[in-house]
Amino acid sequence: MTAAVGGRSGSGLDRFLRLFSDVRAGEGLTAIILTANVFLLLSAYYVIKPVREALILSDGGAEVKSYASAGQAILLLLLVPVYGMLADRLPRRRLLNAVTGFFVACLIGFWALARSGAPVGVPFFLWVGIFNLMVVAQFWSFANDLYTRDQGERLFPIVAFGASLGAASGSVLTSNLISLLGVPELLLVAAGFLVAGAVLTRLADARERAKNEATLPARFTTAELPAATGEYEILDTAEGPKVTVSVAGPAGGRKGTFELVFGDRYLLLIALLMLVLNWVNTTGEYILGSIVSGSAVAAIASGTAHGLTKSEYIAEFYSRFFFLVNIVGLVLQLFVVSRVIKYTGVKVGVLVLPIIAALGYTFIAFAPVLAVVRWVKTAENATDYSLQNTVRNVLFLPTSRDQKYKAKQAIDSFFVRAGDVLSALLVLVGTSQFAFGPSQFARVNLALALVWLGLAFLVGRAYGRKTAVRAAA
């Protein structure tokens, strides 16, 4: 069944969105629904995040927080395969509703425990580390399932803007709600955002099924096919997006999540890319934090801290830093990302962040001062949250459904968290065994960034090959 051909005409919404990307007739509404959906997911996370910090630091302190980060990776080893089994059995709408419902129930349970005074800091910290990775990965699996490669490359920059805006808005909203509602009640606010997001997911799903699957027998639609089956696919054709359904029986979607990753060179390259990316980024956050802390002590000693305590000096720095990162990221997402993908392609887009990182840590290695580190991390984080975030989700467009739902979940959760663990081990060994300072850690990050750049080149080349093969088919 072939959908209506998209053209340059369309609704006022379609025409407005063309300011930011190449939107064809009839595509704007679903793109906005998905944008609002991921906006709510990221808003929920940034409402939860301060609660996580308050509970973990009150119950266990910074040391326990550090140990709990490693525990998240261990839990993901167990939970990702469970998610894969659900994806093998449930159609996509039921899968999305089941997982979202589970997280909503957890939020209500943690709210009740926190209100009763129970010590939930460590369990909640572990849970949040799983929630923020799995629920966002699931959203992007769903978006990949709705769009063809051509549509995804054009529309994901718009959709990803919702994530950037949600992160910024959630932070601002939380600072205003804490004094009005209290810390535990923020969990109910986040639960409300998740429920609203589920409504939008259902709306986008119904809209795209009506457009693409109206003439298919029910048993061959996404309403009944398991989410991870390879039987259903939307392809780009000269006449527009076209649904193809295989009737040869279940595809290879019954492989385990990690088996899919390690059994496919393209997926393994993406997994390693995400691991090294997060390793570099998290180590960079440590470098920034150590220099900010040292600068606070020096400013107080010299009388240039304007009467601020160390914690107040650090908080003020990070408030300005996060605000600048969010603003730069939003501007990049709106006006740069779609043009980079359109005019240079994904193969170039995936190289931008590791190049920025390599150049940045070269500067830090020779000039480990706050002004240099601040601007390097601003450029790195803003690009990560905008261009890199969009590109890494585009990379899954030419994959099968089992790879979109199962392998992507493993990569976006476990391999990302594994990068955090490797960074923690690097910091532990570097500080305790070798007395590393910011300059030495920057040199390690430079070496890792060069490895990352090589992986990005291989991933971009493999993406080009996959898309060429699928276009020829």
Provide the domain count.
Answer: 2
User: What general outline do the C-alpha atoms trace?
Assistant: globular
Give the count of helical stretches. 15
User: How many distinct beta strands?
Assistant: 2
Largest sheet: 2 strands, antiparallel
CATH topology type of the largest domain: Growth Hormone, Chain: A
Radius of gyration from the alpha-carbon trace, in angstroms: 22 Å
Helix content: over 70%
What structural class do helix, strand and pairing data support? Answer: mainly alpha
- The first-level CATH class name of the largest domain: Mainly Alpha
* Estimated share of beta-strand residues: under 5%
- The spatial strand order of the largest sheet comes to 1-2
Q: What CATH architecture of the largest domain would you give?
A: Up-down Bundle
**What's the pLDDT, averaged over the residues?**
87
Stretches where pLDDT is under 50 for at least 5 consecutive residues are: 1-5, 247-253
| Helix/strand order, N-terminal first | HHHHHHHEEHHHHHHHH
Could you describe the 3D structure shown?
The chain has 473 residues and is mainly alpha-helical. The chain has helices spanning 12-17, 28-59, 61-89, 92-116, 121-146, 149-181, 186-212, 257-262, 265-302, 310-335, 337-344, 346-366, 370-394, 401-432, 438-472, and strands at residues 232-237, 240-245. The chain contains 15 helices and 2 strands. Mean pLDDT is 87; it is low at 1-5 and 247-253.
